Amino acid sequence: MRTFRLSDMTNGWFVGDFAPTAHRTQAAEVAVKAYPAGACEARHVHRRATEVTLVLEGRVRMDGVEYGAGDVLVLDPGEATDFEALTAATTVVVKTPSVKGDKHPC
User: Fold this and answer.
1) Distance between CA 69 and CA 22 in Å, rounded?
2) What does pTM read for this prediction?
């Protein structure tokens, strides 16, 4: 068994076709992301990947809509969104496939 620490990964990403990673694969990317209240990500789109986000804790706003713990959001390729943590929040994000450079500003 190999073991890793999430704190050794980049921005919570621990599975995907990048380094460092706990499991290298082109099939998917997986992250656990912790945000302080007020953290934002600019509006962007993935042209090839589908992104699935689980709000594990806290309240967030994506594309002008508020979501909370237990909400699961699926963004298909080409769907744009932004992100704001309304409270301290933790998300689990899965993207399929793992495509380097597939985050594009809008």
Assistant:
1) 26
2) 0.94
Secondary structure letter of residue 10 according to DSSP = B
Question: Taken in order 42, 33, 100, 51, is the CA torsion positive or negative?
Answer: negative
Residues 6+ apart with CB under 8 A from 104: 44, 45, 46, 47
The pLDDT tens digits of the residues spanning 57-82 come to 999 999 999 999 999 999 999 999 99
* Residue 4: closest CA among 21, 19, 28, 17: 21
CA distance 96 to 16: 9
Under a CB-based contact definition with an 8 Å cutoff, are residues 89 and 32 in contact? no
Do the strands 65-68 and 59-62 form a parallel or antiparallel pair, or are they unpaired? antiparallel
Handedness of CA 15, 21, 22, 27 (dihedral sign): positive
Question: How would you classify residue 38: left for phi > 0, otherwise alpha for psi between -120 and 50, otherwise beta?
Answer: left
Tell me which DSSP letter residue 53 carries.
E
